Amino acid sequence: MNWYITKLVFQIVTSSNTGTQQFDEQLRLINAESYGKAFEKARIIGKNEEDEFLNNNKQTVKWKFVDVSELTEVKHFIDGMEMHSGIKEMDEASNYTYTIKQKSSSIQKMLVNRPSLTN
């Protein structure tokens, strides 16, 4: 059996969709006999995780599986190894870097509030 990292893409559709479309990109670890089997398994996982529910505003939200967009075999695991890389193009670099700093700050706050996670 071999390990693969795959990217599953879901489109998030709400009954009040106006303007910007949302997509969720998920990196998943897959264990399979071959590249082809890993691709099939990733697609099955994606299809099985499609969902439809009502949000807090009573709007229908659908998570529709788009497809597998990436699949890479991981031959061996090394501490700190790169699992995925993607380049984003943004109109406002400062907004993007601010968002990343905020996410990092949230992680740091969680570590302070839950010291058991640091051990």
Quote the distance from N terminus to C terminus: 32 Å
The order of strands across the largest sheet is 2-1-4-3
Rg computed from alpha carbons, rounded to a whole number of angstroms? 18 Å
The total of helices stands at: 2
Computed structural class: alpha+beta
Proportion of residues in helical segments: 25-40%
Overall geometric form: globular
The helix/strand series, from N terminus to C terminus, equals EEHEEH
Low-confidence stretches: none
Mean pLDDT: 86
Largest sheet, if any?
4 strands, antiparallel
Total strands: the figure is: 4
Q: Into which percentage range does the β-strand content fall?
A: 35-45%
Layout of strands and helices, then pairs:
Blueprint: E1 2-14, E2 22-32, H1 35-48, E3 51-54, E4 60-74, H2 93-113
Antiparallel strand pairs: 1-2, 1-4, 3-4
Please explain how this structure is put together.
The protein is of the alpha+beta class and 119 residues long. The chain has helices spanning 35-48, 93-113, and strands at residues 2-14, 22-32, 51-54, 60-74. It has 2 helices and 4 strands; from the N terminus they run ββαββα. The chain is globular, with a radius of gyration of 18 Å. The mean pLDDT is 86.
State the gist of this model:
By secondary structure, this protein is α+β, with helices and mostly antiparallel strands. It is built from 2 helices and 4 strands.
